[in-house]
Write a structure and sequence with these properties.
By secondary structure, the protein is an alpha/beta fold. It is 33% helix and 13% strand. A 7-stranded parallel β-sheet has the order 1-2-3-4-5-6-7.
């Protein structure tokens, strides 16, 4: 097993790629013991005894609309214009009731862009009124102060802002100039509110070299969670084979994430939350998932 926590970002022994520098060092054995001793934080998604006695859905992701103000190269839904026949307000509120009847405890609203649906706050308030925790995942391009204030007033508890690289790297993936600046500004607005801020990032050939610097930005913005997932050939990304990491690239990614976890995120109180497609059961499993909801 190769060590991940050293005084500088890990580089493959064959010198394929050298990542941004950093600071911090730790014995791998000490790191492993310390991380394994942690208990994950309480969350509405954790299964309870009564969930197992009478199984039911706990968490739902709801794509409210395909309308979007960005043109993301990796969008799995190929969002842009609203689909014909999207749910009416009455139908959407009926879905809220169905989710409540199913005992769902947490709902994340996505799109497209959820805030482009005119009644999105009506739907959010209805979910909150039924006792569900409501979050939003957004590219943040139109997330001005008025939208953040309205979301906070509606009871939305969490927002995850998509940031897929620095400056032009992000803009190139999001298909709109100024998308990076807009996302960063949106994140600052959310961080200044009572809404919990997290950042989510697509990991691909464009963003991989910038992950250390991006991790520092995530911490500086005041996010408490950084969610990373691999770009996969789905939707628009199916047309962009050049974006996809290849299996050999993962030999760089896993030790890099472990190094970022130890030297950049942990000292700043940020939790790394890798998506399912980052994988499980590898040599860095305990390190890169130690701060996530699944521990």
């Amino acid at each position: 097993r190769r060590g991940a926590a050293t005084g500088s970002a890990p580089a493959r022994s064959r010198g394929r790629r050298v990542h941004a520098d950093g600071a911090g060092s730790c014995s791998c054995g000490h790191l492993r013991a310390r991380l394994l001793s942690r208990r994950p934080p309480s969350t509405t998604r954790h299964l309870r005894d009564d969930d197992l006695a009478a199984p039911h859905p706990v968490y739902a992701v709801w794509e409210l609309t395909l309308a979007c103000d960005l043109s993301c190269r990796h969008c799995g839904s190929r969002a842009g214009a609203a689909r014909s026949g999207e749910l009416s307000a009455e139908q959407a509120l009926d879905v809220v009731q169905q989710l409540a009847d199913a005992q769902v405890r947490e709902v994340t609203l996505i799109g497209g862009e959820a805030y482009l649906r005119p009644d999105w706050l009506v739907i959010a308030r209805a979910l909150v009124a039924h006792g569900m925790v409501v979050g939003v995942t957004t590219g943040g391009f139109g997330l001005d102060q008025a939208v953040v204030d309205a979301a906070e007033a509606a009871g939305i508890r969490a927002m995850s802002i998509s940031i897929d690289g620095l400056g032009q790297t992000h803009d190139a993936q999001r298909g709109r100039r100024g998308a990076f600046d807009a996302a960063v500004a949106a994140a600052r607005r959310v961080a200044a509110s009572r809404i919990h801020l997290s950042v989510n990032t697509q990991v691909n050939r464009l963003s991989l070299p910038e992950l250390p610097a991006l991790a520092r930005l995530v911490a500086e913005l005041g996010a408490t969670d950084w969610r990373v997932q691999l770009t996969v050939p789905l939707g628009n990304a199916a047309d962009r084979a050049d974006l996809m990491l290849q299996p050999l690239d993962l030999l760089d990614l896993f030790p890099l994430l472990a190094w970022i976890q130890e030297t950049v995120l942990e000292p700043r109180g940020v939790r790394l939350r890798p998506g399912n497609n980052v994988g499980y059961f590898g040599p860095y499993e305990e390190w890169i998932r130690s701060r996530g909801a699944e521990g």
